[in-house]
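To make this tangible, this section ends with a sequence with its structure tokens:
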Amino acid sequence: MRQNASNEESDKSQSSPSPVQGSQTLLRGLDMLDKVIDGPVKLAELSQRMGLTRSTTHRLANALIDRGFLTFLPRVGYQLGPKLLQLGFLAQSQADIVQIARPIIEDLAASTEDTVHLGRIDGDFALYLDKIPGRRRVEISSRIGDRQPLTSTGLGKALLLDSDAGEWHRVFEADRAAGAPAADYGLWLARMQDYARSGYAFDLEENEDQIRCVSAPIRDASGRIVAAISVSSAAQYMDDGRMAALSGEVRDTADRISHALGWTEAVAPPRKTRR
């Protein structure tokens, strides 16, 4: 009886993977998902990418197929499975952009010592979702929940960067009709074209006297602009040189938030169309 019990314990120790082995298998499975992210991959190529034998690769792939993380197309290869679509949808529905962005924009506010805003598009306006006051003695009138013009605020311009010229003109005229600060459309359009190429936008005292800001868009996993951030301060702290220097930091911060929402640099922005 003792010998049988000893044999059973030995069999269990051999058949049950250790925590380290289980972690290694999990990591290999996650690596495999990364290897097929660009499209179907045949077994031989997948084995080479993974640095594993064909039999080990086949066994691991089948385990992922069983759970819905991969699918196999005959004569085509392995590709991402339906379970990832489900998880992606759930993750997106659960994402709270204010909560996700807050610690990141706090870092930006601490670094710049200026006021940082987070906002999204709301009809033909920019809706302010969050605000972190700066350390300087600068009074900026914006409040969380405010709806400001798209065409005269840095935040609003960043939200419009993927729109086409027709949409820009429509929103510009709507803002003017609603009483937004007057501006020359030709000059505004030229600036917007520069901003779209650069990936960031400026407010050059267009919305509030003596207040300037640098802004950049936030994208989701599809590459679509879903929000924007801005750094705002008094013009005396925001000369042309400092705005140019800040543009990279603001854009990098927006990209950090975008990455947290699932965006990667490999995802191209959606085709520019009218809303």
Observations:
- The longest strand covers residues 225-234.
- The CA atoms of residues 65 and 71 lie 5 Å apart.
